[in-house]
Amino acid sequence: MSQSELPELGEDRTLLLVDDDEAFLRRLAKAMEKRGFAVETADSVAGGRAIATARPPAYAVVDLRLEDGNGLDVVEVLREKRPDGRVVVLTGYGAIATAVAAVKIGATDYLSKPADANDIISALLSDGEEMPPPPENPMSADRVRWEHIQRVYELCDRNVSETARRLNMHRRTLQRILAKRSPR
């Protein structure tokens, strides 16, 4: 999506980004500013709720899992303060149940990480009538599996034994997987 395609944004180009991954948040904020958005960022549920209450944006991108709680709490405040706003929920741990919950409380769309700025803009600006195009570079099945294992490993505070137990996997098998580089 190029700069010339942005007039469909309208007058209010305010965008709230809520994510606890600092590097991702900075990159996404810079990319969205280049595309004409007036960006505000928050790295927690509390920060996102505060901005949503004080200055409700026209657009928002909210991570589902944040260190201090659930991003859906921010979505609820956004819906309450700005019913016409468009909200996209992002997560590195996609599941159908959470996608349904996000849409039920008012999210416009739901994307799995890693999502780039163009995917996010397409989701923010879609009218919901047509299906979005499939991603140009979808993750391989091996990469999806590796991402899932990494996520569970992080949620278990990098405890190999606990991660193996939760994944119903032998500890040594998990150690071999963790020692390898990520698949493409």
UniProtKB/TrEMBL annotation:
<keyword id="KW-0010">Activator</keyword>
<dbReference type="Pfam" id="PF00072">
    <property type="entry name" value="Response_reg"/>
</dbReference>
<keyword id="KW-0805">Transcription regulation</keyword>
<keyword id="KW-0804">Transcription</keyword>
<dbReference type="InterPro" id="IPR011006">
    <property type="entry name" value="CheY-like_superfamily"/>
</dbReference>
<dbReference type="GO" id="GO:0000160">
    <property type="term" value="P:phosphorelay signal transduction system"/>
</dbReference>
<dbReference type="InterPro" id="IPR047772">
    <property type="entry name" value="ActR_PrrA_rreg"/>
</dbReference>
<keyword id="KW-0902">Two-component regulatory system</keyword>
<keyword id="KW-0597">Phosphoprotein</keyword>
<dbReference type="GO" id="GO:0003677">
    <property type="term" value="F:DNA binding"/>
</dbReference>
<keyword id="KW-0238">DNA-binding</keyword>
<comment type="function">
    <text>Member of the two-component regulatory system RegB/RegA. Involved in transactivating anaerobic expression of the photosynthetic apparatus. It is a transcriptional regulator that is responsible for activating expression of the puf, puh, and puc operons in response to a decrease in oxygen tension.</text>
</comment>
<dbReference type="InterPro" id="IPR001789">
    <property type="entry name" value="Sig_transdc_resp-reg_receiver"/>
</dbReference>
<protein>
    <recommendedName>
        <fullName>Photosynthetic apparatus regulatory protein RegA</fullName>
    </recommendedName>
</protein>
<feature type="modified residue" description="4-aspartylphosphate">
    <location>
        <position position="63"/>
    </location>
</feature>
<feature type="domain" description="Response regulatory">
    <location>
        <begin position="14"/>
        <end position="128"/>
    </location>
</feature>
<dbReference type="InterPro" id="IPR050595">
    <property type="entry name" value="Bact_response_regulator"/>
</dbReference>
